[in-house]
Specification:
Order of helices and strands: HHEEEEEEHEEEEE
Helix content: 10-25%
Structural class: alpha+beta
Number of strands: 11
Mean pLDDT: 81
Shape: globular
Strand order of the largest sheet: 3-7-8-6-5-4
Distance between the termini: 33 Å
Length: about 170
């Protein structure tokens, strides 16, 4: 806590997954909610709570907070390689790292001593998006433009806090 007290943060979904008690109905619910989130983004303007972040030094990205499982602060020296792939150990599990510049035509990821890993919800394999900077969490009307950037891996762009912001898929 900010005042020095310790608080327990319980990842209920992670605990249930570790215990092997998640049923198939949860996966169907995840798939349905993922489709609903994408249709909400692509169809019309609506207010959303967004996590705004940067990977490289040029582009800004945003994800709907409801699509984020958690954010881990990591150290660059803890990143391990296996061939061309990168991993980080989180809760005694090797977690694959995704760099946006490896999949999208965007600026190269900035290497800081301390970085962040955004772990999205609805993924088949636990993985994390490597982020150099967390900019803000904000609520705003998102009017997604799906025509300005047509690239696999990008849902579209929107003006958030007066700046063009990319929404990764």
């Amino acid at each position: 806590m900010g005042d020095g007290r310790v608080a327990l943060i319980l990842d209920v979904e992670g605990t249930a997954d570790h215990a092997g008690i998640l049923g198939d109905f949860d996966r169907e619910t995840d798939i349905k909610s993922d489709k609903e989130a994408k249709s909400k983004l692509a169809g019309y303007a609506q207010e959303q709570k967004l996590l705004i972040f940067k990977s490289g030094d040029v582009e800004r990205f945003a994800l709907d907070v409801s699509q984020v499982r958690r954010i881990e602060e990591i150290r660059a020296v803890d990143i391990e390689k296996a061939g061309e792939r990168e991993f980080i150990t989180i809760n005694r599990r090797s977690t694959p790292i995704l760099r946006l510049d490896a999949f999208l035509d965007v600026s190269q990821n900035i290497e800081n001593d301390e970085m962040f890993l955004i772990i999205p919800k609805h993924t088949d394999v636990p993985c994390g998006i490597l982020v150099s900077e967390l900019v803000d969490i904000t609520e705003c009307i998102v009017d997604l433009d799906t025509d300005s950037i047509k690239e696999e891996g990008v849902i579209g762009t929107a003006i958030v806090q007066e700046k063009m912001t990319l929404f990764p898929d």
